């Protein structure tokens, strides 16, 4: 079994985005009407087709990241949009329970305490069977105005995560800062930023079982692994393995063989979870390989690792990090 | 000959930092008194010792990046501090003309047009023999309030760079945003951010001979080279080689063998310039190798490349990118 832990519902029916556009403009968009057939259609030609073509089995599925847009509107608007988005994910997973496993977004807003997100998290996990969440470290959308993830500001949501035994993927949304291209800069920067926040804090002393997945291959972190080992050492911090690798994991959304090979060379295999982010940031075919850039299964298959390690990356680690997901092998 | 294109005067005498502290506090610190012997002492046991030990010959030498602090005080304060800092670099290079080549900082300030920096750039290049500059893409120090590097806001300084035929290293200073650790997040994020700005713009159509060095191995860029090739392709931009590799270069400040090997695998050798940033961000000895993390010469020596390519990285490319530096081979 191959489980892709990072997929977003980027292909949702247009009526969803129309609804959101109205809502964000301060209008009352009324009830969103999307039929089961419309959902099927939106998935059959996209995520399900790619699963079949690439030979992957399950996708951990969450609302589109770029449209979480926590910086838009009031906390009430964020909550309404979040519940709607999570409910739609729930319907996708109910229609295709073998193919999709639900991951929620949270109703965050800039300057609003993360504890306000706990009830939606509980609803998703306890009532709808979600197994993880996306946590936005910068609800301001590129202005980075809230405290770092290691600040006590965030502790209530961590207490809930620990109690519910669900991990968070650290995932920003779109950028309203013209300096940061969303998928080319803001996403990657946020990954790097979060890792360095964890490195400089004692967060995992306070929460020994708290777990984060840093997406997009961990931003710049594996490429600069020597820098991070050295920075920790200069600061008299414990070695990274001891300091945070029981709590911090990386996905494989790195879109070329050389990048994946580097990650496998420096990051312990126990900390790497298979993912592609399809249908996502990069949709084209790489002329150098003749395959889709985001067909990351190929890179893992071609990497010089043992079958046992490949199995950990494809499913074993996901079972450990997301214990609420626990199907037969 | 081995030229290290990225070194900062991090070891300057304490009186410099005391002077700056007073100036930043709004006091009148009076004349800075540093003797030639104090300069010699500050370099002999540090950069010069490391050059000898590591077998490198020349360092392109600029003021400490973290203390450029363009976000501190008025434009007048920034100008006074910048001139003082550049003059001190000039003295270092005059004392050790074989070992150091001067690179200037600019008197930038948040919200102040970059054209205000041109006269100091001209002074450094025309009067003091500087061969390049450090350009801060975020003078606000982690709040990213000025326009992207590709905005016309920056064009006057680019016109001067083209006229003077000097390249800029894109280099931020310290971060006053608690989300961003300076050397572990802000530096690397800025590198990634600048590259993506270049990728999405036609800057190099407007300035075909403008040249930037992206330090710290290009931030996250080589690790995500497939992502960047794919993003450019999805946006119908030209291939990266054509779009920006005549104008954008990467240094080798990547502190482990695996990272350097990745860079050499995906980035054309003509775009890679040797650098270590010593004495800089990471000062310790890597227990895995028994050598300093920032002894980057070793990684280049051990990499599987030809002697001709190694020579390009060690000096050939620097001669092309920094044509004002042109000593006998």
Task: Give a verbal description of the structure.
Chain A is of the alpha/beta class. Chain A is built from 13 helices and ten strands. In chain A, helix 5 links the parallel strand 3 and strand 4. In chain A, helix 5 packs parallel to helix 6. The longest helix of chain A is centred in the N-terminal third of the chain and has 21 residues. The model of chain A has no long low-confidence stretch (mean pLDDT 97). At the A-B interface, helix 7, helix 9 and helix 11 of A face helix 7, helix 9 and helix 11 of B.
Question: Any descriptors?
Answer:
alpha/beta; 12% strand; 329 residues; eight-stranded parallel β-sheet; homodimer; 42% helix; globular; two-stranded antiparallel sheet
* Rg on CA atoms of chain A, Å: 19 Å
How much of the residues of chain A is beta strand, in percent? Answer: 5-15%
Shape of chain A: globular
Largest interface: A-B, 56 and 56 residues
Q: What is the tally of helical segments of chain A?
A: 13
- Please give the alpha-carbon distance between the first and last residues of chain A: 6 Å
Please identify the structural class of chain A as seen in this structure: alpha/beta
Low-confidence stretches of chain A: none
User: What is the total tally of β strands of chain A?
Assistant: 10
Order of strands, main sheet of chain A, comes to 1-2-3-4-5-6-7-8
Mean pLDDT of chain A: 97
Short description:
Two copies of one chain form a homodimer. With 329 residues, chain A is of the alpha/beta class.
Question: Topology, please?
Answer:
The structure is a homodimer of 329-residue chains.
Chain A: E1 3-9, H1 14-24, H2 36-44, H3 47-54, E2 58-63, H4 75-95, E3 100-104, H5 118-128, E4 132-135, H6 155-164, E5 168-170, H7 182-199, H8 203-206, E6 212-214, H9 225-234, H10 240-243, E7 248-251, H11 257-266, E8 272-273, E9 285-286, E10 291-292, H12 296-302, H13 307-321
Parallel strand pairs in A: 1-2, 2-3, 3-4, 4-5, 5-6, 6-7, 7-8
Antiparallel strand pairs in A: 9-10
Helix pairs in contact in A: 5-6
């Amino acid at each position: 079994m191959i489980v892709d832990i990072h997929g977003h519902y980027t292909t949702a029916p247009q009526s969803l985005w129309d609804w959101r556009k109205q809502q964000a403009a301060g209008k009352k968009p009324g009830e969103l009407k999307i039929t089961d057939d419309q959902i099927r259609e939106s998935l059959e030609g996209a995520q399900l087709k790619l699963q079949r073509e690439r030979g992957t089995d399950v996708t951990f599925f969450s609302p589109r990241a770029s449209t979480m847009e926590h910086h838009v509107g009031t906390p009430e608007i964020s909550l309404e949009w979040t519940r709607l988005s999570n409910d739609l994910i729930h319907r996708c997973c109910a229609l295709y329970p073998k193919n999709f496993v639900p991951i929620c977004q949270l109703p965050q807003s800039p300057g609003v305490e993360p504890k306000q997100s706990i009830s939606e998290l509980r609803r998703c996990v306890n009532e709808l069977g979600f197994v993880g969440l996306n946590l936005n470290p910068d609800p301001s959308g590129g202005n980075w105005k809230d405290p770092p993830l290691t600040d006590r500001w965030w502790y209530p949501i961590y207490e809930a995560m620990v109690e519910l035994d669900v991990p968070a993927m650290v995932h920003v949304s779109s950028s309203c800062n013209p300096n940061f291209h969303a998928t080319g800069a803001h996403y990657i920067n946020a990954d790097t930023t979060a890792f360095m926040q964890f490195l400089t804090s004692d967060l995992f002393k306070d929460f020994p079982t708290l777990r984060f997945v840093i997406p997009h291959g961990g931003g710049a972190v594996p490429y600069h692994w020597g820098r991070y080992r050295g920075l920790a050492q200069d600061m008299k911090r414990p070695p990274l393995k001891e300091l945070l690798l029981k709590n911090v994991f990386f996905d494989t959304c790195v879109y070329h063989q050389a990048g994946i090979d580097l990650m496998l060379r420096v990051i312990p295999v126990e900390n790497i979870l298979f993912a592609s982010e399809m249908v996502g940031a990069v949709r084209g075919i790489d002329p150098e390989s003749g395959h889709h850039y985001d067909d990351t299964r190929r890179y893992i298959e071609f990497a010089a690792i043992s079958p046992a390690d490949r199995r950990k990356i494809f499913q074993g680690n996901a079972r450990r990090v997301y214990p609420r997901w626990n199907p037969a092998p």
